[in-house]
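TICKET: design request
STATUS: open
ATTACHED STRUCTURE:
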């Protein structure tokens, strides 16, 4: 660090570790002989100690302005530079022909369905999970009308008095070796919206899920909507003798009815993906949905995992560790162009030079996307 007093006065200090990670302050005074600085503005959440890391930004480079320029570049990415889409969050059913398009999807080029994959049915939910963890607060029954596969689903009515951290219901099954499988897939529905992890699927090598070897968080559920859930097994190598499956209530969701159907283990690297012919699917842009015509789709399409291929929205960056799914050279040069134009606006004497430099970096940004192509036949969801 430069030993001259006041050398970094007016610069920006940005914490990059501990409690002050992300905090930004201006440097009010710098003492060169001790290499210490005094910050201006609100007191930091914690004192700066030995070992804490930070960045110093030149007075002309407000880090907040730089971060905003980076995300502005991400949002401005041309279609040909947008990241590829590979979404497998949807599953077909004979009773479902229209599907909501995932919110990050910009365009769809191909729809595929999974066939001939390795799976092991753990419980088809055609019989009742009748081992209840909290008798009196849960009423369980079979539901033959509201289901996603087979003859029935399991229906569990939860009283408002049901505590957290308790098993809603469980069921013993024949000993099953899941060590070769990677995921568990099932259908779930709740009459109230739930947050991720409020419910958990349990797998155990002991009876009644007494000491689960797999505790799998159920993602957020939208009220009154069947959701296909696909969760990776945490420790498949330990799942050699699963003898019970269960459902746990970990966060208070209040009085609710929860349905579960078709619990099975799958192996991610098996199966074939068959493309659905373009005349067998249509898109409703206004409703952000697509529909499948099973009569013109590959055999088995009426009950299969769906893969969407195409183009998705790029992810804006929220922290230094956020992964960027856009070509980095494009982001760097596009952000520089934005910052230079802003500098030209502020400094009339440098306006022409700054704008010329901005145009140069803008060209560099577009050149970084050379060779990237939009998938042929892409149907754009957002015009």
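STATUS: resolved
RESOLUTION: sequence designed for all positions
ATTACHED SEQUENCE:
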């Amino acid at each position: 660090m430069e030993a001259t007093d006041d050398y970094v006065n007016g610069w920006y200090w940005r914490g990059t570790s501990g409690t002050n990670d992300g905090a930004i302050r201006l440097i009010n005074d710098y003492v060169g002989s001790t290499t210490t600085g005094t910050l201006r503005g609100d007191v930091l959440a914690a004192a700066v100690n030995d070992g804490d890391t930070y960045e110093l930004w030149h007075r002309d480079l407000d880090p907040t302005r730089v971060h905003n320029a980076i995300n502005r570049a991400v949002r401005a990415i041309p279609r040909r530079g947008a990241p590829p889409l590979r979404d497998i969050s949807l599953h077909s059913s004979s009773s479902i022909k229209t599907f909501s398009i995932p919110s990050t999807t910009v365009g769809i080029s191909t729809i595929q369905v999974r066939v001939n994959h390795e799976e092991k049915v753990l419980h088809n939910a055609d019989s009742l999970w009748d081992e209840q963890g909290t008798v009196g607060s849960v009423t369980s029954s079979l539901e033959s009308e509201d289901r996603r596969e087979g003859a029935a689903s399991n229906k569990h009515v939860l009283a408002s008095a049901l505590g957290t951290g308790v098993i809603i219901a469980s069921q013993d099954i024949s000993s099953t070796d899941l060590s070769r499988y990677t995921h568990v897939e099932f259908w779930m529905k709740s009459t109230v919206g739930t947050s991720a992890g409020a419910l958990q699927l349990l797998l155990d090598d002991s009876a009644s899920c007494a000491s689960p070897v797999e505790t799998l968080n159920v993602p957020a559920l939208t009220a009154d909507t069947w959701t296909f859930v696909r969760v990776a097994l945490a420790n498949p190598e330990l799942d050699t003798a699963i003898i019970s499956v269960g459902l746990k209530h970990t966060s208070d969701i209040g009085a609710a009815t929860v349905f579960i159907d078709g619990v099975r283990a799958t192996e991610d690297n098996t199966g074939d993906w068959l493309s659905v012919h373009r005349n067998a699917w249509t898109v409703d842009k206004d409703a952000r949905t697509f529909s499948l015509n099973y009569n013109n789709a590959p055999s088995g399409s009426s009950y299969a995992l769906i893969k969407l291929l195409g183009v998705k929205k790029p992810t804006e960056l929220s922290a230094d560790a956020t992964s960027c799914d856009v070509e980095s050279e494009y982001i760097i040069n596009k952000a520089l162009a934005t910052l230079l134009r802003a500098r030209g606006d502020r400094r009339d004497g440098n306006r022409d030079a700054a704008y010329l430099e901005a145009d140069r970096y803008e060209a560099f940004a577009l050149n970084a996307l050379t060779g990237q192509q939009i998938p042929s036949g892409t149907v754009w969801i957002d015009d």
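CLOSING REMARK: Residues 88 and 307 are 5 Å apart (CA to CA). The longest strand covers residues 105-115.
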